[in-house]
Amino acid sequence: MPRLIKKVGSLRRGKRGVPKGVIHIQASFNNTIVTVTDVRGQAVSWSSAGACGSRGTKKSTPFAAQTAAENAIRMLIDQGGMEQAEIIMKGPGPGRDTASRAIRKSGVVLSFVRDITPMPHNGCRPPKKRRV
Q1: What GO biological process terms does the UniProt entry carry, in alphabetical order?
Q2: Longest dimension (CA), the chain
Q3: Which of 26, 24, 34 is nearest to 113 (CA)?
């Protein structure tokens, strides 16, 4: 028999905080996106380096990733919400470590950090050799 999951009110409406959640960091070479979800996967807040005001090549810097991580969890801290979180990182970008350091400094207790970067198992066939 399936267990019933109690419905949690949305933080966007300001009803209540989320005591435990998951912080997703997607770090590409061009941008860093930080999404905070509850345990069920419902997005609570998000931020990106581009949304924080960085434009062009400055979006791919570690400082922009740090700013994005701080903005994503600032709303949760203001609501008195998240006490414990898990970090799931994806991508090879330069801002992944800086974003996780910013989250660690915010006071949220981290249970674990997981890296789910997709790795090819031999990948696509390369293009044929160039003959000059």
Answers
A1: translation
A2: 68
A3: 24
Residue 27's DSSP bridge partners are 32
Threshold 0.85, pTM exceeds: no
Beta strands in 1-132 (DSSP E): 20-27, 32-38, 43-48, 84-90, 109-115
Q: Which tokens belong to 75? A: 């709303």
Q: What are phi and psi for residue 129, nearest 5 degrees? A: -65, 145
How many angstroms from the chain centroid is the CA of residue 109? 15
Residue ranges and CATH numbers for the domains of the chain are: 20-115 (3.30.420.80)
Measured distance CA(45)–CA(131) in Å, rounded: 52
Q: What strands lie across the sheet with 109-115, from one edge to the other?
A: 43-48, 32-38, 20-27, 84-90, 109-115
